[in-house]
Amino acid sequence: MHMKKAMALLVFCCIASLLNSHEFWLQPNRFQYKAGDPVRIRFHAGEDFRGENWTGTRSSVERLELFWKEFDDDLKPLIGDRVPGDSLVIQFFDEGTVMTVFESTDKYNRLDPAEFQAYLQEEGLQHAIDYRSGENETDSAGREYYRRSVKTIFQVGTSLENSCTKTTGLPLDIIPLTHPYALKKGQSLPVKVLFKREVLPNYRVKLWHRLNSKTEVTDLETDSTGQLRIPVSLAGQWMVSAVRMERIARDSADWQSYWGSLTWGYY
């Protein structure tokens, strides 16, 4: 069956930019659906799973794709050029696991020295702090381009497929190595973190868990193979996020950051 016969695209409105000092994630209205239920996915920037909607148009989108069974569908052509919005509404008439992937275009950000230093410290980007110190740049403004690399996984019915465990080619790709909806009570979720298709060993990530209107945030670290095991309870909403910063040589900016996240949930 062709993907478009099993899925109805109802409404799509897309997005542009907010300050990059916040997390960015894809937020379905829930994570478990029955066949035929409308699925609304919002694009959120903020903290603690309480975000503002990102609004904009096609120029802000590098990639928007949907992975379902053996299909990989490009949704970017559906995005309007002129009318901004904040959500994607889709509908599936067959059961299966669905992964939606979004990558933004580069956006520019400039912060004064103190703000940029605080941002680097908050995100644990010590290599950038050390570089600026060594080059006597600590008192210089922070000029960067930033890019979002995010995805979400939700389930329609009970039929589980493993398309959600594939590499997507996102610049910063957070990949579950087993199906998050196949976990049993007490099991952990193995995750691999890639940057430009290479593993990120011994790298800091954040784990977010929201349940009963409260959010817990935990700092974790990948091992020497770029993997980690996430202790998951089968309730609430989960997110794994990471930030990668690279030095660049461009007239308008000195840094390029990549912000990645993966969301899934059990309610």
Give the biggest beta sheet.
10 strands, mixed
DSSP helix count? Answer: 3
Low-confidence stretches: 11-21
Overall outline? globular
Proportion in β-strands = over 45%
| Overall pLDDT confidence | 89
- The percent range for helix content is under 10%
Secondary-structure element string: HEEEEEEEEEEHHEEEEEEEEE
Helix-strand makeup class = mainly beta
Query: Roughly how many Å is the radius of gyration?
Result: 18 Å
Q: What gap, in angstroms, lies between the N and C termini?
A: 29 Å
Detail the topology: elements first, then pairings.
Blueprint: H1 3-6, E1 7-12, E2 23-28, E3 32-33, E4 38-47, E5 50-53, E6 61-68, E7 71-74, E8 87-92, E9 96-104, E10 107-111, H2 113-122, H3 126-134, E11 142-156, E12 172-176, E13 188-195, E14 198-199, E15 204-211, E16 214-221, E17 227-231, E18 237-247, E19 255-265
Parallel strand pairs: 3-11, 11-19
Antiparallel strand pairs: 1-8, 2-4, 4-5, 4-8, 6-7, 6-9, 9-11, 10-11, 12-13, 13-14, 13-17, 15-16, 15-18, 18-19
Short note summarizing the structure:
The chain has 267 residues and is mainly beta.
Describe, in plain words, how this protein is organized in 3D.
This protein is mainly β. The protein has one domain (3-109, 139-265). It has three helices and 19 strands. The protein has helices spanning 3-6, 113-122, 126-134, and strands at residues 7-12, 23-28, 32-33, 38-47, 50-53, 61-68, 71-74, 87-92, 96-104, 107-111, 142-156, 172-176, 188-195, 198-199, 204-211, 214-221, 227-231, 237-247, 255-265. The strands form three sheets. Strands 3, 6, 7, 9, 10, 11, 15, 16, 18 and 19 form a ten-stranded mixed sheet that branches. Strands 1, 2, 4, 5 and 8 form a five-stranded antiparallel sheet that branches. A hairpin with a 2-residue loop joins β4 (38-47) and β5 (50-53). The longest helix is centred in the middle third of the chain and has 10 residues, at 113-122. It is globular, with a radius of gyration of 18 Å. The two termini are 29 Å apart. Residues 11-21 have low confidence and may be disordered.
